[in-house]
Design goal:
Blueprint: H1 12-32, H2 36-57, H3 62-89, H4 95-119
């Protein structure tokens, strides 16, 4: 069972990585129940969040950082979309709602990072 109880204490890089791992595990299950297209969409968006955050940290400039964080934000929102659909289809499984809750939390954090970065003066 997925547990995200301790994730608020993790830095966003590690938290998004843990989320991506759980997304991959869940997508394996989706393929087992023949939900191939949903699995493909979810794995792309759900793993892209952390990948773009890592790219943001290694950005060449503040502008590059903000751009990559904005992509992570869009991917988090898309992940929420796919999980909302899956949550409606697979109602007897708690995992989609747990992933949905965590993706909403990630989106809030990423939005805050983006807003704060845009407020900071250029260095």
């Amino acid at each position: 069972m997925i547990t995200f109880n301790n994730t608020p204490k993790l830095p966003i890089k590690e938290r998004s990585f843990k989320f991506a791992v759980e997304i991959v595990k869940f997508c394996i299950y989706l393929k087992e129940i023949r939900q191939y297209e949903l699995s493909n969409q979810l794995i792309r968006s759900g793993t892209s969040i952390g990948a773009n955050l890592r790219e943001a940290v290694n950005g060449y400039s503040k502008k590059d950082f903000i751009y990559k964080v904005s992509i992570a934000q869009k991917e988090a929102d898309e992940t929420i979309y796919w999980l909302e659909i899956i949550n409606e289809i697979i109602v007897d499984d708690p995992i989609p709602s747990q992933l949905l809750n965590e993706s909403r939390q990630l989106l809030k954090i990423i939005r805050t990072i983006s807003m704060n970065a845009q407020k900071q003066p250029n260095n």
